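Handout, section 3.2

Students often ask what a structure token actually looks like in practice. Rather than define it abstractly, here is a full record for Cyclic nucleotide-binding domain-containing protein. The first block is the sequence as you would receive it.
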Amino acid sequence: MSIDFSQFIDTAAWSAGLSDEQLDRVKQDASVQRYLAGEVVCQRGSTPQHWLGVIEGALRIDAVGDDGRRVAFSSVFCGGWLGVGAILNRQPGPYAVSAARASLVVLVPLATFQWLLDDSRQFSRWVIDQLNVRLDQDLALIENLLLCYGEPRSGWQEVTSSFQSLAQEGELKKDQALMQCIKAISMMRNQILQPSDSSQPTGETMAALLCAAGEAEASAWNALRL
């Protein structure tokens, strides 16, 4: 592995609490892959095999509708990591990942990620924090998308209330707040699929909404399990 790869791992936020032995294993197990602009990194519906880190370039995450149309869901830039939720779920990914431009990507195997989760308390804490951050981002995206085509529905109001509770209550009531958030997201998804008023999301917006709702729900479940 190149020195750039080693430095990338050493300076990653999640590696701060790892021992030298743990860092050495990550570097030994991981690989580096170059992708051209537009090249597919992960197909929608594929089962995740790696945790991905962006050394150079940027990765684009697309929500894909049943009709095949895509809408940009998120992007991950140099220094960023993605795939925590998909790895923890161990289910086919709901989105497609491609290189927004020529990119150099670190691939940490699924088994190595799981070993770190089991072996390092600091790494587990970092993962939980990332899931909470991701949940916040997904909920903000859902709010923006809902406002694009109509007034936020009651399900969304329940989601925001639950997340505020999660942020304020602390560890003792974290599980209760997460469960409230999960139930509210499920309610909101049903309202998106079966709107009660005349406003209808476009196909692209529908795909992004459902993808964001799925990601938010997965983040909440994963934070609850850890």
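Discussion prompt for tutorial groups: The chain has two domains: 3-118, 120-225. How would you have guessed this from the sequence alone?
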